[in-house]
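Please annotate this fold before class:
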Amino acid sequence: MIDFVKFVPSDANIEDLNRALKFETLFDERTAEIKYKVACFHQMKVKVFYPSMRIEIFGSLHKCYNSIAGIHAPNQTGPEHRKKGYNGNGFPYTRMRYTIDYICRRLGLNDQTCYISNLEIGLNIVHPYSDRKVLTNLMRHVGVAFHETQKNYFEAEHAQYIVKCYDKGRQYKLSKPTIRIELKYRKMEALNMPTFTTLNDLKNKQMLAAFCNRLTNKWLEVLMYDYTIRENELKPTDARKLPLFKNSSYWNEELNPKRLDRPKKDLTRIILNHSENIQDYFTKRIKSDWNQLQKNCVTIDRLFKGVKPWEMCNH
């Protein structure tokens, strides 16, 4: 559901943070003045900038929870691998809410005054297809080409957000094919949700449902070739188009944008009538998996009663 966040706790107490965390100080090489102090906390980083004393906290809530719970990937067998964190499993609503409360209670923060500046929304989807074939057939998103920035990691980068799709199964050596579909918002204006501003808002299920709709709609805007097209069923006129439709350069370089509509309609028609329609499969899974993760579960937290944040920080 929610993965990476960056937020500014407007009323954080520096003394509480100093008690709770071990900060490393980084100096400006030219002036020898302090640039910032940084500390790690369960896959999250806490930065205090000088001389403004502005505080930023950022990292993956998903990895944070797994760090708290001691959950690791199958291929994270040693301490060095585990330092990278793990977010290849499910991350239901109750775990996300617990993680926010955990961070705030141990660092002495108020989630209603922790203002979010960056956010990632995504899902790990287990599926019956070839990860590599699905990913390499992602062509473009709203005029922006998909690029493989790392092995099995594809993204379409817009000015204020990025559409990312990558192979979680290979990354963590999971037992089943798993693709993560994700939106990374670098500018909160792109979300166009004025009422969404703080960590506390992430606990609002109506807001989370809106995020699900946003993820679904952005995925539906992706132009992708479906490798399950049954070519033997096609008429010769359609069969002759497939070499072009499979080619990313055709969609992103050779084709005049003003003439994009007709080829897209032809590809969509072929996919609907002569394939397993992989994109539709993932669309349905986004909705069903998100709804499942958002269901209520019973959680009991007795850890914090009568305990100051810094006293429990290392537990």
Notes: Residues 298-315 have pLDDT under 50 and may be disordered. Residues 152 and 200 are 34 Å apart (CA to CA).
